[in-house]
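**Polypeptide and fold**
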Amino acid sequence: MRTTSFQLITLTVGFCLCACSGTDTSGSPGGGGEVSVGGSTEAGGNTGANGGSPATGGATQTAGGSATGGSKAASGGNPGTGGATGGSPQTGGSKAVGGTPATGGMAPTTGGTIGAGGMATGGMGTGGMAPTGGTPATGGRATGGTPAAGGGTATGGSRATGGMPATGGTPATGGSRATGGTPATGGSNATGGTTSTGTTKKFFGNITTGNSIDSGSLKYFHYWDQISPENAGKWGSVQSTPTSAFNWGTLDSIYAYTNTNNIIFKQHCFVWGSQQPNGTPTEAQVENWIKSFCARYPNTKLIDVVNEPPTHTTPNYTAALGAGESGTYPWITKAFKLARQYCGSAILILNDYNTIEYSADETRFINIVKDIKANGAPIDAVGAQAHAAHSFSAATIQANLNTLASGTGLPVYITEFDIPESSDATQLSVLQGLFPVFWNTASVHGVTYWGWIAGQTWETGSGLVNGTTPRSSMTWLMGQLSRPVPPN
């Protein structure tokens, strides 16, 4: 999960729980099916700033320390100092030597385009090749994005010639993924298939800007068809301690906006080793948090149930949460069981970073998924944050995506993609290389870009719009998605 440091932006009337009369409903990119308006705002207590929880209203807290390895701290997104040698680069920190990327893999094929104008095909990013040797360092990264349940890729990443893949097919307790079923060549994207837990279309979304959704005159739903709350959905943003009153205000506004404008709401996140309430929560308190969220926001489509599992981060309540479960990661298994019990229709995701960039991290992550599936975790998909993807070739990312999908047997969501490049030309070149990989790979069921307003993103230089003026990447991306270009 990623945190950004900037002034809280006061939620406008347009973000109230009911649909705002002044909301512009034209030009919406299309949503994820019919939604129902959520419940009324509950008057909650103020959340404290101590111990990594944010101030009232879900603001980013000033704590939440980073793990070792040069990772970015959870507080405000400032780069961590240092960085382990012989390891992978952490976002926002200095790049360590090491981390040979896997080579090979299928290049993006033509077709599978969406909307008018078609997709750009092929194209290698200019983000640079990964250094050779060594294994990636581990460290606390912030998380986001969301996987969809079921489905999968054809073996080796080859593309079938018919239709969009159904996003289902995976049993609630895991199971193997279906093969084939990629986007039709030369055709437009379908609106997605049905999973065993819910229905979504393949989306290209973004996140809140601070605690706001629209940015001035720019209407979020004109450009993005999915949203993840950058910080407001973290447990510590909702409760300062496990026994304090829930502060739902910011989440209520975000959820109401998605219902009003028919876009997909993805929760980020339930359980994480950072930005949690002060103290040591009990199993009952973790359950109450998940139960209360699911009851309040029943139309949540996707959930990062656990974010950045070991060795990246570990909550301080794993012993209590995992009691009675089996396997190496019983607390992860239990978190997924609780999420399925109370948010039964949502796609449940395990989210992490470096999983499509570095082979050591990818192998560790795949082994976690295998362990929790074997012990009954109802996991539906995996999330690849992809913060470091811009530093690798499109061929390397394609090969690693294929490995992640085949190794876990689950669909993949790109959950926190960004390209921190101040040069418009460089950012555009990287996007033109990686977008076809993500959009044309059947196992990838959705993409979330991590911040769009320049100067208000977790990674410096990753924004796509300066004020109301689009950068070259935004203009190109909206063309691929057949969506308006700001300031329209």
Summary: Residues 193 and 203 are 12 Å apart (CA to CA). The radius of gyration is 20 Å. The first helix runs from residue 220 to 223. The chain has one domain: 118-481.
